[in-house]
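Example record

One chain of 233 residues, shown exactly as stored in the release files.
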Amino acid sequence: MVITQEIAPERIISPDVIFPPSDLYSDEPPVETELHLEQIMLLIKCLKWLWKDRTDFYAAGNLSIYYSPHQRKTENFRGPDFFVVLGTDRKTRKSWVVWEENGKYPHVIVEILSPTTAKIDRESKKELYQETFRTPDYFWFDPYTLEFAGFHITNGKYQPIKPTEKGHLWSEQLGLYLGVHEGLLRYFTSEENLVPTPEETAELEVKRADQETQRAERLAAKLRELNINPDTI
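Predicted structure tokens for this chain:
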């Protein structure tokens, strides 16, 4: 089930307000560590690969979300480490400008914790995503301590998502679990199977092909032992 949270008409703006240009560049600082960058890229890459046949979503990382026509720095734009918007065009953007995107805010946000951002991610950003963005699914993850938490909006407030026995947290918006695998946050199917990267998919295909070749070679050898020509079968 997808929960939409577009701006209600009465919240959108008086006609007297002059909007800034819609062609706004992102204004986010660089990610803090190589591991943070790897984690963000992994989330983007895996989802785009899994949904490679879909054109109705936008997934990005460390990209500014502009949501106020006044655009006062730190107050009226934010750059989540990773976010997904559903029901929109899959195309490149310089930033996410809410008033140019039919009032859409992210449906899923993941923040990658660090010592300098953890308090903000757990408190002020959580409040912003709940009260203003109304983002249905919010997660945070620390790639160093492996702290992992998730929340889903119920009756207007974030409630903790109950983990499975494997420690996975369900995202209703994505229709996927998120969980820690080999020290990084990954997606899992509804059956809790790991969603592979493109590289892992290629490796699996090579492995299957090798296994099939070996199976055929063993069968041919067995037939020769029985004086049966494999070509006649």
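Notes: The mean pLDDT is 84.
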